[in-house]
Amino acid sequence: MGTRYEDQPPELWAGPESLDPTPVWKQFALIGLFLFLGLVLVGVVAAFAVAPQVVKPPALVPGDRLVLSTSDVPQLGSPPKRIGSPLLDDARAFWLARVSRTEVIAVRAYWAPRPGDAGCGVEAGAAIAANRPGASFGYLAPCGDRSALPTFDERGDPVTGAERGLDRYLVSVSDDRVIVNLSRLLVSPERTSAPPPP
Fold it and tell me: pTM, whole model, 2 decimals?
């Protein structure tokens, strides 16, 4: 048997079914469709990402981000402001507070002794911080036993009667707006004591 193409017997030749039956214009159309769908997907993602920067506050944008004006943030030393209805349902309401010149926090307005337990609403005010020198406000969760009401400092950390602090939302502050990411709840860990020494 020879090594040239003409020397090969016809039974070894590839038949017409081995050729690509798809016309070239269909291949170009398929590639064009995939490119178009990719551009649409990039456009949708970009629109969701830029939405908090272009809407007029207050607004709830896709991705569970609440956009507020910087004028909604209380001044340093002032009690926190409750943000809830009609913007949010009570399950996602929060207290917005300025705890330092550069730090703004959003403390969830609902607390439970342990995640998943039945809990109660959180109250805030200056009178709650009366027993802590230097504190301008605090939080109170009137749950369960009235003799040991859980109290929290201005950052939501437990002071008395609580094993864990208040849950918080991520907050981003720019020149003219505050963005609270309601899909990112930072669950406060439960404090546990060390085991007794042997």
Answer: 0.71
